[in-house]
UniProtKB/TrEMBL annotation:
Domain of life, per lineage: Bacteria
Gene Ontology molecular functions: L-threonine 3-dehydrogenase activity
Record family assignment: Belongs to the NAD(P)-dependent epimerase/dehydratase family.
Gene3D superfamilies: NAD(P)-binding Rossmann-like Domain (3.40.50.720)
Organism: Beijerinckia indica subsp. indica (strain ATCC 9039 / DSM 1715 / NCIMB 8712)
Residue span(s) of domain NAD-dependent epimerase/dehydratase: 48-269
Biological process, per Gene Ontology: L-threonine catabolic process
The protein's name in its UniProt record: NAD-dependent epimerase/dehydratase
InterPro entries, sorted: Epimerase_deHydtase (IPR001509), NAD(P)-bd_dom_sf (IPR036291), NAD(P)_epim/dehydratase (IPR051225)
Alphabetical list of Pfam families matching this protein: Epimerase
Amino acid sequence: MRLLETNKDVQVVLFDCNPDMRRITGFNKGPSDPQDPKYDPKDRYNTVADRVTFVQGDLALLSHVLAVFDKHEPTSVFHLGALLSAGADANPTLGFDVDLLGTRHVFEAARIYCQHNKKPPVRVLFPSTIASFGLFPFTDPNDIHKLVVRPPKPEDKLVVPNEAIQLPTTMYGVSKVSVERLGEHYHAKGWIDFWAVRFPSVVGAARGPGGTTAYSTLMIQEPLMDKAYEVYVSSDTRLDIIYVKDAVDALIRLHDAKDLKLRRVYNIAGIRIGGEAPQASDIAAAVKLVKPNAAAITYKQNDQLTAIVHTFGILDAKATYDDLQWAGPTFDLKQTIIDCKSEIDQYPGRIKAIELY
């Protein structure tokens, strides 16, 4: 929607295996079918609908991806398709096929299309993740010269530099690291124009299921919709989070950047409270501040999911500030929840049932 609403000449092809278009048609307050008697051409989605083409297909099938390039001839690709962390670990075969093999299909389709048609490389934007770092090397307290590798603990308060070592512990993280390296290789060969951002957990109304950190959205979304929510981590669990509108801004800023030569992949820092990532209890308190009569938020720790969340550090975005002139998130925690509430109130049709999580 940001691309369509900020540039009247942009045409968008939305390629997805899921034919449920509510995440975009739901930006309307009324019907999106022109034949419906209540259709309003000035409704938000309806004003841009003639520049959106939906193509149903499977990233894991090269023929599907090749067909999109062959028919629609994109000049830029925002490659956002993935099976998220919890889903990829539950089904590692599908996780590999979608997250790693599917991304290679995008790269190959872009390479073949441009070489065959003698066109300049397609710019490919890719969202990597804080989960790509995983384990970290630590100095053994019993031997200053010895390094050990262990999962970080919450008290480590890890700040992760842009060029930190990456030792992921999930299929999702492994795939993201692999794609970062593969994208850099394709770029070095001149086959694609590759750029990537590493996001913290992205918070926003109507986010999809399957992520280990989905609770960070659901503990906002559900209580604001007067539905109680049980958080599956402890109240003092910290998590680097960013509001979806800031995440979109970072992707578009990178897409539009010129003359970047130092690196291909950038950390995107999330919301900070006193220099630290918010605790789950901070999010809960902000929800109550914005809506005092919000439904209850309770906690019941899932040890497996909590252990994964505890491997996430805090992203250091100094390189992003310096190279992209990006000043960091514009939405703090309270503003995030206020805007999230506005989106939920205005566009309830975008919200998926919690049974899907």
